[in-house]
Amino acid sequence: MKLIRRLDTTASALLWAWVGAGLGFGLLTAPGLFRIVPSRDLAGQVAGNAVANLDLAAWVVFTAALLLVYAGRWFMGVDDTAGLGPIRLWAAGCLAALCLCLTSTFIITPKLQEIRGRMHAPVESLPTTNPDRAAYDKAHGASRQLFFLRLLLAAGLALTLSRLPAEKEPA
């Protein structure tokens, strides 16, 4: 029981650290970056690099949390005996977050890079009717939505860890 709670605390700390990094970037760093840097295009490139690093960190955090919480209970023999219980639902939430990471890393980010590669001018200099700018804005919006969904999932997963069973049910 104590080992499982320690594993839960570690997983929770990882999740909260990632949430803090994401909020710190999204609420503090990115707005300041776009205010200070003279070119929105350059600020966007710097912000894109930071988001790529946060995406990599998300992979590590969600995978580690899943392993710590689910595998720890599996080794200790703690299981949901009544079908789809809280442990399996928590693991499904973590897997959903990993699916969002997959989408961001292998679909949205390459699409953004492809569109930027076709543009021969900064994004803000193109008219809003330009097809590349419209595609870029759409992909960028999807990227932001996936990022904030992962933030919500990470916070929800961290908050619900203390509610998961931590010992075997009597036979």
Ends apart, CA distance between termini = 17 Å
Mean pLDDT: 90
In DSSP terms (H or I, runs of 4 or more residues), the helix count works out at: 4
**Beta-strand share of residues:** under 5%
Furnish the topology, listing elements before pairings.
Blueprint: H1 2-36, H2 40-76, H3 86-118, H4 131-160
Structure notes:
There is one protein chain. It contains 4 helices and no strands. It is mainly α and 171 residues long. It has one domain (2-163). It is elongated and about 65 Å long. It starts with a helix and ends in an 11-residue tail after the last helix.
Outline:
The protein is mostly helical.
List the defining traits of the structure above.
171 residues; mainly alpha; 4 helices; 79% helix; elongated
